Hints:
6 strands
Amino acid sequence: xRNRYTMQKLKLYLKRVYRLALNSQKQEELVWTDLKKIHxxxxxxxxxxxxxxYIETMFEISDGIGGKFYYMIYDKTFHCxxxxxxxxxxxLITDLFILAAHFNNLLNNGVVIVNVNSQYVEYxxxxxxxxxxxxxGEIDIQLFNHYSTAKDVYSAFQRLVDEQEAPAIxxxxxxxKNEDGERxxx
Length: 186
């Protein structure tokens, strides 16, 4: 039993060394292959665009509302993107920027971007490609983290647009909800 465990550790170590020894283009190809495999195995509603090297997936971002999530690997980085809001209400531009700034102060990973020229709000999360290259399961973790945070960001921006609630109150309520959720988990 112990011998088998040691062999598995050695095999994993050698696999990591091999992946590290490859040039960056080959590393990107490996992570791209891993990402495609996760989507294929999960049987998600996805479109894989080989030439452009991205995957578009539909997930429910709120009750009955789908969001297009984009996953790509370029510049030695694994990117996850989702448009949170399209068509910015002009009268709320300042509040949109304030809410985005609140999120950006709180987020450990990712950034909320208000793109005035193209009229959308986006949540973009990126991570150095070496992490998913070396550690099996890191792509899954990043996909899950991006998705769950995107749901919170979407909910907050919808509340701003629909109810015209103040950004500070929206963030305070979100923090309280997350704090209560952590307490319930204990």
